[in-house]
Design a protein that fits this description.
two-stranded antiparallel sheet, Actin-binding Protein, T-fimbrin, domain 1, 4 domains, 611 residues, disordered N terminus, elongated, Methane Monooxygenase Hydroxylase, Chain G, domain 1, single chain, mainly alpha, CH_dom_sf
């Protein structure tokens, strides 16, 4: 079987070579039953045990084949290739060469396109030569074994490739003695450190420690807690745990699903298959961690690790991002469309202030960092006696300064426009408050006068009606004078609408309400005048009737005066004495009437006081 020098030598499942038996190195310990069969199967119990061991070995081989096939397809997918049967599709050596080309990142010799056995052997030899260049020594295996489709040796070859390109790079140094562990031990230690503290997760190996699926979910939760709710997982629901972890890794992490729940939740899970899958988690999360800390350590890393070319790439990337932010921000703050309310404009002003005090200083610091970065580039180039770096068009410091000047100009215009709009909205708000105050006063006045003119307490005598008429005329004069104030409300509403006040509908509704009440009041006043005039005319008729009754009574009195009254009446006049008598009689009757009226008013006043 193939060996990877160094840390790969300690991987389990790779026994020491046996020179007497070339195939023995590729055999796993589970296949020892073949050598011990004549002696171990002498009894029925031994036969059952051997059958059980063989079944487990076959099952493990099937899991390895499926896992390795998926692993190979996950890498071949980069170049649009796919295999269905691991044993058959690797026989011609073409897929093997393409796989090694993807893993090594190097351009390999083109494989031979023939269909004969000699062509397949040639392609496999090319792959073996590539592995030899990678310091991977293949022992006890030849190209003919792969071309013949030998199951165990084909699996061993793929496992050797996995060791070299996936597992060998894993190294973890302990803090106590700085001891460098083997690849397998380093991967196991990494899993233990990442799952430390998770309940019911105790990783001691790459077999049974993963059966319940909690270890896979713990690895995902440690790095992406938003993907897994670990508190809801139970040890007893192994299939669900495994299915959840595999689906999450495939959908959210982009990791190929190399295993199925039934491949892990079994009596003796295959170690190599689990290692192959777990190492994909290691590489993914290691790469994610490197990306996360890159921004925080960039200052130190630039001086210690990055080459001048990488620094230049970083500078151009940051310069492009800063310029993109400046252009985007200029476009946003140049928009002079403001909220149509005082609170909205105040919020926009607060947002602009927050931008000036929080967001902009960060970008200004980035601008300063870019200048320092460019100075560092030029210093390194000078130290190396190389030509100074000239940023490409649009990424120079002068381009950034020009764009920054445009940004500050746009900020000044934005602030001035915001404050002008704030003053306008404040004036509108004061005008709206004045409108509301006037509307409240007008509605109160209109309601009071509507109530006043709705009362028809004109009195029952002519003087009272005449007094009510004079009072009504005074009310009409007051209402006529108040019309200008009502119109003032309408003018305020029109001014608010003309300025685009945000609550113009409410203002218009209140204005219409005031105008309706005004129209109602004027109608009530006109109707009350009509009724009052009718009552006044009626009282005059009553007065004339009273005069007629008085005259008739005087005539009766005159009849008792004798011939002188008759003579005066016949001469067409009453005479001086008669007129005096009539006046005296009228005066006495009016005096009596005034007394009766005074008595009625006293009674009315007393009733009011009682009320």
């Amino acid at each position: 079987m193939a060996q990877v020098p160094g840390e790969v030598d300690n991987m389990e499942g790779l026994p020491a070579p046996n020179n007497n038996n070339p195939v023995a190195r590729w055999e796993s310990p589970d296949r020892g039953w073949e050598r011990e069969q004549p002696m171990a199967c002498t009894a029925a119990a031994s036969l059952f045990e051997c059958s059980r061991i063989k079944a487990l070995a076959d099952e493990r081989e099937a899991v390895q084949k499926k896992t390795f096939t998926k692993w190979v397809n996950s890498h071949l997918a980069r170049i649009g290739c796919h295999i269905g049967d691991l044993y058959a599709d690797l026989r011609d050596g073409f897929v093997l060469t393409r796989l090694l080309e993807v893993l090594s990142g190097e351009q390999l010799p083109r494989p031979t396109r023939g269909r004969m056995r000699i062509h397949s052997l040639e392609n496999v030899d090319k792959g073996a030569a590539v592995l030899k260049e990678q310091r991977v020594h293949l022992e006890n295996v030849g190209s003919h074994d792969i071309v013949d489709g030998n199951h165990r040796l084909t699996l061993g070859l793929v496992w050797t490739i996995i060791l070299r390109f996936q597992i060998q790079v894993i190294k973890i140094e302990t803090e106590d003695n700085r001891e460098t562990r083997s690849a397998k031990d380093a991967l196991l230690l990494w899993c233990q450190m990442k799952t430390a503290g998770y309940p019911e997760v105790n990783i001691q190996n790459f077999t049974t420690s993963w059966r319940d699926g909690l270890a896979f979910n713990a690895l995902i939760h440690r790095h992406r807690p938003d993907l897994v709710d670990f508190s809801k997982l139970t040890k007893s629901n192994a299939n669900y745990n495994l299915q959840r972890a595999f689906r999450t890794a495939e959908q959210h992490l982009g990791l190929a699903r190399l295993l199925d729940p039934e491949d892990v939740n079994m009596e003796a899970p295959d170690e190599k298959s689990i290692i192959t899958y777990v190492v994909s988690f290691y590489h993914y999360f290691s790469k994610m961690k490197a990306l996360a800390v890159e921004g925080k350590r960039i200052g130190k890393v630039l001086d210690q690790v990055l080459e001048v070319g990488k620094i230049i790439e970083r500078y151009e990337e940051l310069a492009a991002e800063l310029l993109a932010w400046i252009h985007r921000t200029v476009g946003l703050i140049s928009n002079q469309k403001f909220a149509n309310s005082l609170s909205g404009v105040q919020q926009q002003l607060q947002a602009f202030t927050a931008y000036c005090t929080l967001e902009k200083p960060v970008k200004f610091q980035e601008k300063g960092n870019l200048e320092v970065l460019l100075f560092s580039i030029q210093s390194k180039l000078r130290a190396c006696n190389r030509r100074l770096y000239v940023p490409r068009d649009g990424c120079g410091i002068w381009d950034i300064d020009k764009a920054w000047g445009q940004l500050e100009k746009a900020e000044h215009e934005r602030e001035a426009a915001l404050r002008a709009e704030l003053i306008r909205q404040e004036k509108l708000e004061l005008l709206a408050q004045r409108f509301d105050h006037k509307v409240a006063m007008r509605e109160s006045w209109l309601n009071e006068n509507q109530r006043l003119v709705s009362q028809d307490n004109f009195g029952y005598e002519l003087p009272a009606v005449e007094a009510a008429m004079k009072k009504h005329e005074a009310i009409e004069a007051d209402i006529a004078a108040y019309e200008e104030r009502v119109q003032g409300v309408a003018e305020l509403a029109q001014a608010l609408a003309a300025e685009g006040y945000y609550d113009a509908r409410r203002v218009a509704a209140q204005r219409d309400s005031v105008l309706r009440q005004w129209a109602l009041l004027t109608g009530l006043v006109g109707a009350r005048r009509t009724r009052l005039e009718q009552n006044l005319a009626l009282q005059k008729v009553f007065q004339e009737m009273v005069y007629m009754v008085d005259w008739m009574e005087e005539m009766q009195v005159g009849a008792t005066w004798g011939p002188r009254w008759v003579w005066c009446a016949r001469r067409g006049g009453r005479g001086i004495g008669t007129e005096r008598v009539v006046r005296d009689m009228k005066r006495e009757r009016e005096t009596e009437r005034d007394k009766e009226k005074s008595e009625k008013e006293r009674v009315r006043d007393r009733d009011r006081e009682i009320d």
